[in-house]
Amino acid sequence: xxxxxxxxCAVVTGGTSGIGLAAARILIEEGARVAICGRDADRxxxxxxxxxxxxxxxxxxxxxxxxxxxxxNAFADKVKGWSGGKLDLLVNNAGQGRVSKFADxxxxxxREELDLKFFSQILPLRAFKPLLDAAPAPAIVAVxxxxxxxxxxxxxxxxxxxxxxxxxxxxxxxxxxxxxxxNTILLGLVDSGQWQRRFEARADKSLTREEWFTALxxxxxxxxxxxxxxxxxxxxxxxxxxxxxxxxxxxxxxxxGGVSRFI
Length: 263
Ligand code: NDP
Known about the structure:
Layout: E1 9-13, H1 18-29, E2 33-38, H2 41-54, E3 59-63, H3 69-83, E4 89-92, H4 107-133, E5 139-145, H5 156-175, E6 181-187, H6 193-200, H7 209-219, H8 231-241, E7 252-255
Parallel strand pairs: 1-2, 1-4, 2-3, 4-5, 5-6, 6-7
Bound molecules: NADPH dihydro-nicotinamide-adenine-dinucleotide phosphate.
């Protein structure tokens, strides 16, 4: 199947690691040019070097904190010049989760989490909308979590914020139709930067990486008995964002190894 991504331009926020980096690589393999961003200059340079080996010159890498309006507008300006004034696909992926129960989450932490989850969508959406409007068949894909529909008490504020974001994107799928398609992916557990950091902070240092991840998949009752690899959600992102998904909008695709308990 031809995804129809040749000669398109995409933005992937948080494209320096994990799922975002994998999505950027697959988009380039499919013939797109991709602009990525992240906060850390070293990670950004390393990601650019990796993507340059896929196809030299196909990536624009800019330092940008998606929670900083000035950064996001400057990133959009750079993309505008680089892409010729249009954007075919925006992938809102940047972010991370917060592990905390209600009893140990402060008001400041609630505000920080709500800010991260909402404004990592709102600021890029607003800044890139004019470029999306100028493309022939534009699309937005938001990386969200299964926590939005199946909350976990140990990630109380992430779950609540994710639910709100899911609601926001459903509204946008209607508001932006018929010009721009808007879809989300709902992740379960994916072996990427944030799980690597939790592995490194594990209590029992005698466990190997494989043992720790196998136990995690068992404890979480994942039917496919493992965490996802970054390429697995990345392929779903690329499909939903491509012209091949031309009649799909307002949809959510679960990429979780089957971990949801609802129908
Ligand atoms: P990674 O930590 O590997 O990647 C996160 C990326 O986002 C990095 O490139 C990071 O770069 C960037 N980033 C984080 N905050 C910002 C910011 N404020 N501005 C710009 N870039 C930022 O994790 P994943 O690939 O797993 O995460 C991708 C998305 O998937 C995230 O939104 C995450 O919350 C979500 N998710 C992941 C799950 C999983 O199991 N892995 C489960 C549910 C959701 P830098 O730090 O340099 O800024």
